[in-house]
Amino acid sequence: DWTPASILDDAIAAVRAQVGDKRVICGLSGGVDSAVAAALVQRAVGDQLTCVFVDHGLLRAGEAEQVERDFVAATGVDLVVADAADQFLDALAGVTDPETKRKIIGREFIRTFEAAARGVVERAGEADGGDVEFLVQGTLYPDVVESGGGEGAANIKSHHNVGGLPDDLQFALVEPLRTLFKDEVRAVGLELGLPPAIVWRHPFPGPGLAIRIIGEVTRDRLEILRAADAVARAELTAAGLDRDVWQFPVVLLADVRSVGVQGDGRTYGHPVVLRPVTSEDAMTADWSRLPYEVLESISTRITNEVREVNRVVVDITSKPPGTIEWE
Ligand code: XMP
User: Is 30 annotated as a binding residue?
Assistant: First the structure.
């Protein structure tokens, strides 16, 4: 008889058996899978677990706080935050090509995670000579099937799809979600007492807002996009439609300007694109038929509240031919 509670009990017992009294490290991305995996391992082995959150400065409004404050409050987890926003933005300066953005972000992510992981390992050694032997990964059953089901060496597959850790940082993997589908992971997350905002979070790409700013990524542009995105998400939530939509990218066409009239005069501002989609697995997708009233309130609020945006457009392309993200 499988209930979220019984799945959780079994998974906790398995983690305890695997880990024993060794130390464990886990990277948090802000996403559901790593959050549930970390909360589960925390429930199993308590403060033998240290989580690392690389804040790359490319998350949406409130998301870093969701990890640093809400996740910690809900789980009591020991969290190390690597605040790397400046480093990522410096590395992204002048870059407009989407794949180059991804490569740079992947590279900086690994660097930063590695340095933080080394810090955790050293700290554990100084404290009591305890070894950090395990790395938690939020691998789900569909990921296992997709990758051929092999055990593989520890690598940060995470959301950046980039390579492994260096040889002197070898961890065995703890993958407590390996037999679960997404809906089961969410049920287990709720069972663990995680906030609904984390459990029901839409998928979000590892490179974050960097691939939703068409053009160079700058602090100012991030601020504009964050503000517009926050409005779109708030209105979707207020309409009770979060779970009818798979993802809702908001895209800033940072190098495009058009003429508008806002307030007292003419403006020459940027458009944002709303890209709400429905999907089963992100391989194919359809554009969401959001109610006109919801689109209207998003458009009105964004153009009122985000000075730099004077036009809101809706992407009505299915996938294929359009991808979900614009980059
Ligand atoms: P596309 O845009 O190809 O996206 O239709 C399919 C799904 O993948 C996500 N996505 C990414 N996720 N790193 C990620 O971790 C990436 O570089 C990346 N690019 C796209 C996208 O949000 C959607 O869920």
Answer: yes
CA dist., res. 22 & res. 124, Å (int):
10
60 & 116 share domain: yes
Ligand 1 pocket, 205 CB below 6 A?
yes
The answer on 293 and 228 residing in a single domain is: yes
Q: Compute the radius of gyration of the chain from its Cα atoms.
A: 21
Give yes or no: residues 149 and 93 share one domain. yes
14 and 149 inside one domain? yes
Q: Which amino acid is at 158?
A: S
* CATH code for the domain of 191: 3.40.50.620
| 31 annotated among ligand-binding-site residues | yes
Rounded to the nearest whole angstrom, what is the distance from the C-alpha of residue 57 to the centroid of ligand 1? 18
213 assigned to some structural domain: no
Q: Rounded distance, CA 280 to CA 246, Å?
A: 8
Q: Which of 101, 139, 280, 324 to mutate to test the pocket of ligand 1 (most atoms within 8 A of CB)?
A: 324
Q: Residue 164: inside a domain, yes or no? A: yes
- Domain membership flag for residue 130: yes
ipTM over 0.90: yes
Q: Please identify, by atom number, the ligand 1 atom nearest to the C-alpha of residue 285.
A: 5
Among protein residues, the one whose CA lies closest to atom 4 of ligand 1: 324
User: Rounded CA gap, 56 and 43, in Å?
Assistant: 27
Q: Does ligand 1 lie within 6 Å of residue 98's CB atom?
A: no
Q: Are 75 and 51 in contact (CB under 8 A)?
A: no
User: How many domains, in total, are found in the chain?
Assistant: 2
CATH of the domain at 272: 3.30.300.10
Determine the structural domain holding residue 97 and report its residue range: 4-199
* Separation of CA 87 and ligand 1 centre (Å): 23
Question: How many other C-beta atoms are found inside a 10 Å radius of the C-beta of residue 123?
Answer: 14
In tens digits, the chain (327 residues) has pLDDT values of: 789 999 999 999 999 999 999 999 999 999 999 999 999 999 999 999 999 999 999 999 999 999 999 999 999 999 999 999 999 999 999 999 999 999 999 999 999 999 999 999 998 888 888 789 999 999 999 888 877 654 443 444 333 433 456 777 789 999 999 999 999 999 999 999 999 999 999 999 999 999 999 999 999 999 999 999 999 999 999 999 999 999 999 999 999 999 999 888 999 999 999 999 999 999 999 999 999 999 999 999 999 999 999 999 999 999 999 999 999
Give the end of a domain, one of 164, 199, 234.
Answer: 199
Tell whether 150 is in a known binding site: no
- Which is nearest to 245 in space by CA: 255, 263, 254, 232? 232
| pTM for the structure as a whole | 0.92
